[in-house]
Design goal:
- This protein is mainly β.
- Helix content is 9%, strand content 34%.
- The chain is built from three helices and eleven strands.
- Strand 5, helix 1 and strand 6 (86-89) form a beta-alpha-beta unit.
- The longest helix is centred in the last third of the chain and has 5 residues, at 123-127.
Length: 164
Protein backbone atom coordinates (compact mmCIF):
# COMPACT_ATOMS: atom_id res chain seq x y z
CA UNK A 1 0.00 0.00 0.00
CA UNK A 2 1.33 3.42 -0.90
CA UNK A 3 2.55 5.58 1.94
CA UNK A 4 2.33 9.36 1.94
CA UNK A 5 3.38 11.91 4.52
CA UNK A 6 0.91 14.22 6.22
CA UNK A 7 3.16 17.27 6.41
CA UNK A 8 0.78 19.86 7.88
CA UNK A 9 -2.74 20.06 9.27
CA UNK A 10 -4.66 23.32 9.57
CA UNK A 11 -7.80 24.05 11.59
CA UNK A 12 -9.05 27.62 11.43
CA UNK A 13 -12.07 28.67 13.47
CA UNK A 14 -12.54 31.81 11.38
CA UNK A 15 -12.55 32.83 7.74
CA UNK A 16 -9.38 34.93 7.39
CA UNK A 17 -9.71 35.99 3.74
CA UNK A 18 -12.66 38.36 3.76
CA UNK A 19 -13.07 41.44 1.61
CA UNK A 20 -10.34 42.56 -0.75
CA UNK A 21 -6.85 41.07 -0.71
CA UNK A 22 -5.39 44.57 -0.53
CA UNK A 23 -6.93 44.88 2.96
CA UNK A 24 -4.94 41.88 4.20
CA UNK A 25 -6.13 38.79 6.06
CA UNK A 26 -8.06 38.88 9.33
CA UNK A 27 -5.56 38.39 12.20
CA UNK A 28 -5.66 35.15 14.17
CA UNK A 29 -4.75 34.40 17.77
CA UNK A 30 -2.37 31.46 18.08
CA UNK A 31 -1.24 29.01 15.44
CA UNK A 32 -3.75 27.28 13.20
CA UNK A 33 -1.33 24.44 12.45
CA UNK A 34 -2.06 21.40 14.61
CA UNK A 35 -0.65 17.88 15.10
CA UNK A 36 -4.02 16.11 14.77
CA UNK A 37 -7.50 16.74 13.45
CA UNK A 38 -10.81 15.12 14.35
CA UNK A 39 -13.08 14.49 11.37
CA UNK A 40 -16.81 13.88 11.49
CA UNK A 41 -18.68 12.14 8.69
CA UNK A 42 -20.47 14.55 6.34
CA UNK A 43 -19.58 17.50 8.64
CA UNK A 44 -15.84 18.16 8.29
CA UNK A 45 -13.08 18.99 10.76
CA UNK A 46 -14.11 19.69 14.34
CA UNK A 47 -13.26 23.32 15.17
CA UNK A 48 -12.80 24.44 11.55
CA UNK A 49 -14.66 27.36 10.00
CA UNK A 50 -16.53 25.05 7.57
CA UNK A 51 -17.56 22.40 10.12
CA UNK A 52 -21.28 21.49 9.78
CA UNK A 53 -21.97 24.39 7.41
CA UNK A 54 -24.64 23.25 4.91
CA UNK A 55 -23.08 25.26 2.07
CA UNK A 56 -19.74 23.51 2.57
CA UNK A 57 -20.75 19.91 3.30
CA UNK A 58 -19.41 18.71 -0.07
CA UNK A 59 -16.24 20.74 0.38
CA UNK A 60 -15.63 20.65 4.13
CA UNK A 61 -11.99 19.49 3.90
CA UNK A 62 -9.33 20.47 1.40
CA UNK A 63 -6.29 18.31 0.63
CA UNK A 64 -3.21 19.66 -1.16
CA UNK A 65 0.04 18.18 -2.45
CA UNK A 66 3.17 19.65 -0.85
CA UNK A 67 4.92 19.31 -4.20
CA UNK A 68 2.52 21.94 -5.62
CA UNK A 69 3.27 24.70 -3.11
CA UNK A 70 4.79 27.66 -5.00
CA UNK A 71 8.02 27.62 -2.97
CA UNK A 72 9.85 29.26 -5.88
CA UNK A 73 7.75 32.36 -5.11
CA UNK A 74 7.96 32.06 -1.31
CA UNK A 75 10.04 29.26 0.25
CA UNK A 76 7.93 29.54 3.42
CA UNK A 77 4.59 28.93 1.63
CA UNK A 78 2.38 26.50 3.55
CA UNK A 79 -1.21 25.85 4.59
CA UNK A 80 -1.43 29.13 6.49
CA UNK A 81 -1.29 30.96 3.17
CA UNK A 82 -3.21 28.52 0.94
CA UNK A 83 -5.93 27.90 3.58
CA UNK A 84 -6.10 24.18 2.75
CA UNK A 85 -6.51 21.70 5.63
CA UNK A 86 -4.26 18.73 4.88
CA UNK A 87 -0.87 18.95 3.17
CA UNK A 88 0.30 15.63 1.74
CA UNK A 89 3.71 14.71 0.34
CA UNK A 90 4.04 11.80 -2.06
CA UNK A 91 0.76 11.87 -3.98
CA UNK A 92 -0.60 14.03 -6.81
CA UNK A 93 -3.92 14.47 -5.04
CA UNK A 94 -5.33 16.68 -7.81
CA UNK A 95 -5.21 13.67 -10.17
CA UNK A 96 -7.79 11.81 -8.07
CA UNK A 97 -10.77 14.16 -8.34
CA UNK A 98 -13.92 12.03 -8.55
CA UNK A 99 -12.41 9.22 -6.47
CA UNK A 100 -12.94 8.15 -2.89
CA UNK A 101 -9.73 7.64 -0.95
CA UNK A 102 -8.72 6.33 2.43
CA UNK A 103 -6.05 7.99 4.57
CA UNK A 104 -4.84 6.10 7.64
CA UNK A 105 -2.23 7.80 9.80
CA UNK A 106 -2.36 5.03 12.42
CA UNK A 107 -5.71 5.56 14.13
CA UNK A 108 -7.89 3.92 11.50
CA UNK A 109 -8.91 4.91 7.98
CA UNK A 110 -10.63 8.19 7.15
CA UNK A 111 -12.68 7.99 3.96
CA UNK A 112 -12.82 11.10 1.79
CA UNK A 113 -14.77 11.68 -1.43
CA UNK A 114 -12.64 13.98 -3.60
CA UNK A 115 -15.34 16.20 -5.09
CA UNK A 116 -13.79 19.09 -6.99
CA UNK A 117 -10.73 21.21 -7.53
CA UNK A 118 -9.91 23.91 -4.99
CA UNK A 119 -9.33 26.85 -7.26
CA UNK A 120 -6.77 29.39 -6.11
CA UNK A 121 -8.03 32.93 -5.57
CA UNK A 122 -6.44 36.36 -5.81
CA UNK A 123 -5.50 36.13 -2.13
CA UNK A 124 -2.66 33.77 -3.11
CA UNK A 125 -0.83 36.68 -4.78
CA UNK A 126 -1.17 38.68 -1.56
CA UNK A 127 -0.28 36.00 1.01
CA UNK A 128 2.37 34.07 -0.96
CA UNK A 129 3.54 36.52 -3.60
CA UNK A 130 2.86 37.77 -7.12
CA UNK A 131 2.25 34.87 -9.50
CA UNK A 132 1.10 32.39 -6.84
CA UNK A 133 -2.51 32.29 -8.02
CA UNK A 134 -1.39 31.44 -11.54
CA UNK A 135 1.18 28.91 -10.27
CA UNK A 136 -1.54 27.05 -8.33
CA UNK A 137 -4.04 26.79 -11.20
CA UNK A 138 -4.92 23.15 -11.74
CA UNK A 139 -2.96 22.08 -8.67
CA UNK A 140 -4.47 24.03 -5.80
CA UNK A 141 -5.83 20.98 -4.03
CA UNK A 142 -9.08 19.05 -3.81
CA UNK A 143 -12.25 19.79 -1.85
CA UNK A 144 -13.60 16.71 -0.09
CA UNK A 145 -16.55 15.30 1.75
CA UNK A 146 -15.67 13.05 4.70
CA UNK A 147 -17.48 9.70 4.54
CA UNK A 148 -16.34 8.49 7.95
CA UNK A 149 -15.45 9.72 11.40
CA UNK A 150 -11.78 9.57 12.27
CA UNK A 151 -8.51 11.21 13.16
CA UNK A 152 -5.54 12.28 11.06
CA UNK A 153 -2.14 13.02 12.56
CA UNK A 154 1.15 14.33 11.21
CA UNK A 155 3.56 11.77 9.78
CA UNK A 156 3.29 8.75 7.52
CA UNK A 157 -0.12 7.58 6.34
CA UNK A 158 -1.40 4.81 4.13
CA UNK A 159 -3.11 6.25 1.02
CA UNK A 160 -5.56 4.04 -0.83
CA UNK A 161 -7.85 4.80 -3.76
CA UNK A 162 -11.08 2.86 -3.19
CA UNK A 163 -12.89 1.05 -6.01
CA UNK A 164 -16.02 2.74 -7.34
Amino acid sequence: MPTVDIVQLLVSPLHRYEGRPADGPVPVDGDELVARIEIRRELGIVGDRYFARPAHRNAAITLMAAENLPVDIDPAADLRQTRRNVLLRGVDIDAYIGSTVSLDSGEGPVLLALRRAARPCAWMDTTIGPGAQRALRGKGGVRCTPHSDGTLTLGPAVFTVLPH
